[in-house]
UniProtKB/TrEMBL annotation, chain A:
The keyword Plastid does not apply. It comes from the Bacteria. Gene3D superfamilies: 3.40.50.970. This is Transketolase. Its cofactor is thiamine diphosphate. InterPro entries: THDP-binding, Transketolase_N. Belongs to the transketolase family. Keywords: Thiamine pyrophosphate. Residues 10-270 form the Transketolase N-terminal domain. Pfam families: Transketolase_N. It comes from Parapedobacter indicus. PANTHER family: TRANSKETOLASE N-TERMINAL SECTION-RELATED.
From TrEMBL, chain B:
It comes from the Bacteria. Residues 10-175 form the Transketolase-like pyrimidine-binding domain. The keyword Signal does not apply. The lineage of its organism: Bacteria, Pseudomonadati, Bacteroidota, Sphingobacteriia, Sphingobacteriales. This is Transketolase. Keywords: Thiamine pyrophosphate. SUPFAM superfamilies: Thiamin diphosphate-binding fold (THDP-binding), TK C-terminal domain-like. InterPro entries: PDH/Transketolase, THDP-binding, Transketo_C/PFOR_II, Transketolase-like_Pyr-bd, Transketolase_C.
Length: 281, 317
């Protein structure tokens, strides 16, 4: 187990390097939320999910994942590339003309690993519920994962989906909220307080657990616990406490790095804190 | 003028209900979703026969569009059912991102389109939906004219991979198309060949165009009437061939004159063969409460309006 954690932490370090390098190269994109969700993506794709090597959009016979808060595309793209869905060299094309790595994830350019476009917030949970429904119809005993932002909880559609899934016993679904307390205009508590998110989701009928999203061992344990709660008549929600910008000291804990790219000096300072473990793209 | 008669009248939404049941029997991947309007959408027969393939979403149209998008992942062919207003404007961004941009095989089935929804009034009478939907890249837009054509279209769209907007209505109208017709997406239907004017009509206006054509014939005007049931992709070939013969055009639709069939036709003509055109459409306004017939008259959408438009456009030749 400890060896596995070390290996996953090494992947996470490389993914963080990819994130800051991608965002720096095009001088745009969203490093803060991406860095905060790195452990989650790595744990999901390199440990928790049962997935096939080759991508097909229907994802029958494997676990599938939907990113609702599509702006954290850098961590998604890096993870997909490091997991082998496409060549890591393609990360250099992020947000550039004629790239499959669009600013926000899309199926339009046929990038392996992406099953729906996201970016306009609030839509991913509904899509995940539909895919979970399809799995049940297909007698496919695999899970559907979804990640949402915490600021995204301000979208009304989230709560339509939140109401639907427990009533319909969508219990092959694990949704996670990246609970970093930050959004573009500031702290969620300042912009529009989310109140007691745990109580809200529980009141809607979800089986809720909490985990620290920036400690690999806790993410692995949290995902394992979430998995153990599936198939019991309720959808599962993980309230995942993270720190925006985690892993780069000057980016940590501030909404200011939500959608800002580092300059050359900042990139050097960030990379000095992140070990190159798998080779830069 | 070719003679069209009818023995029965039904609502086009019932054609959808019948088509949904039949396509459900033919294709086990077909599933249906509804946002608390099962009776209005005539989905009960499908639900009775395929309860496990029907999903009641509740009054949550945005969620319905997202769930429909998700159901395609795994090979299902979802048909969503609600009023046209709640199928388009209310959920435009969900359709745009999760369905159209994501190239999801969702069939958005929209009842109670246009003024003929009647007494509920303008909050429910969408007259902008064709425009909204045809502007989405990759979206197919279909507005059939009677029960039989709506049923045939409902069945046919399952075999087309990609998002479809299928628009139909509430009022009981004559059934005048072939019950065994083969519905071909994007292929206009020649209702009547003529030489003096081309009338391009869609939806409920096709029957009005036939009524107009009979009266025009008595007045010595030989109208060509074409049913444009598919607004996107538009049958440009049929339009240009007709206009080359007649030299003038009337378009007729239960929609705002901005952004509907008329504008699609005008674009084809402007590019290929500039031709005088008159619009029979709602003149950039909202609707109001009333009976369907009262509203079609007040907003200028009946046979008399088509005749007047023909007379105007022929003078412009």
């Amino acid at each position: 187990m400890n060896e596995d954690i070390t290996k996953l932490e090494q992947i996470a370090s490389q993914v963080r390097r990819d994130i800051v390098r991608m965002v720096h190269a095009c001088q745009s994109g969203h490093p803060g939320g991406s860095l905060g969700c790195t452990e989650f993506f790595v744990a999901l794709y390199f440990s928790a999910m049962e997935r096939k090597e080759k991508f097909d959009i229907d994802g029958i016979g494997e676990d599938i994942f939907f990113l609702s808060n599509g702006h954290i595309s850098p961590v998604f793209y890096s993870t997909l590339a490091r997991a082998g869905y496409f060549n890591v060299s393609e990360l250099a094309t992020f947000r550039q003309i004629n790239s499959r790595l669009q600013g926000h994830p899309t199926t339009h350019e046929g990038l392996p690993g992406i099953r729906v476009a996201s970016g306009s917030l609030g839509q991913g949970l509904s899509v995940a519920i539909g895919a979970a429904r399809a799995k049940k119809l297909n007698n496919d005993n695999h899970l559907v994962y979804a990640l949402m932002g915490d600021g995204e909880q301000q979208e009304g559609q989230i709560w339509e989906a939140a109401m639907y899934a427990p009533f319909n016993k969508i219990d092959n679904l694990i949704a996670t909220i990246d609970y970093n307390g930050q959004q573009i205009d500031g702290a969620t508590e300042q912009v529009l307080s989310l109140g007691n998110l745990r109580a809200k989701w529980e009141a809607f009928g979800w089986d809720v657990l909490e985990m620290n999203g920036n400690v690999m061992s806790e993410v692995l344990a949290g995902l394992a616990e979430a998995k153990s709660r599936t198939g019991k008549g309720k959808p599962v929600l993980i309230l995942m406490k993270t720190e925006m910008g985690n892993g780069v000291d000057f980016m940590m804990g501030s909404h200011k790095w939500h959608g800002v790219a580092p300059n050359d000096e900042q990139l050097a300072a960030a990379l000095a804190q992140l070990e190159e473990t798998l080779g830069d793209y | 003028m070719k003679k069209y008669t009818y023995t029965d009248k039904k609502d086009t939404r019932s054609g959808f209900g019948a088509g949904l049941l039949e396509v459900g029997r033919k294709n086990e991947n077909v599933v249906a979703l509804c946002a608390d309007l099962v009776g209005s959408l005539k989905m009960n027969d499908f639900i009775k026969e395929f309860p496990e393939r029907f999903f009641q979403i509740g009054i949550a149209e945005a969620n319905m569009m997202g769930i429909a998008a998700g159901l395609t992942i795994g090979g299902k062919i979802p048909y969503t059912g609600t009023f046209a207003n709640f199928s388009t404007g209310r959920v435009y961004d969900q359709i745009r991102q999760s369905i159209a941009y994501s190239d999801k095989n969702v069939k958005i089935c929209a009842s109670h389109a246009g003024l003929t929804l009647g007494e509920d009034g303008a909050t429910h009478q969408i007259l902008e939906d064709i425009g909204l939907m045809k502007m989405l890249p990759g979206m197919t837009v279909i507005n059939p004219c009677d029960y039989n054509q709506t049923k045939a279209a409902t069945i046919a769209i399952a075999d087309h991979h990609g998002p479809v907007y299928l628009r139909f209505g509430r009022p009981v109208v004559p059934i005048f198309t072939d019950p065994d017709q083969k519905f071909e997406i994007g292929k206009a239907w020649m209702v009547n060949e003529g030489a003096d004017v081309s009338i391009f009509a869609t939806g409920h206006l096709v029957w009005e165009a036939i009524q107009a054509g009979e009266q025009l014939a008595e007045m010595g005007i030989d109208a060509e009437i074409i049913n444009i049931h598919t607004i996107k992709p538009l049958d440009e070939e049929a339009i240009l061939k007709s206009v080359a013969k007649t030299g003038c055009v009337v378009t007729a639709e239960e929609h705002n004159r901005l952004g509907g069939l008329g504008d699609s036709v005008a674009q084809v003509l402007a590019k290929n063969n500039p031709t005088p055109q008159e619009y029979v459409a709602v003149d950039d306004s909202f609707g109001e409460s009333g009976t369907p017939a009262q509203l079609m008259e007040k907003y200028g959408l009946n046979a008399a309006n088509i005749i007047a438009a023909v007379q105007r456009v022929i003078k412009r030749k």
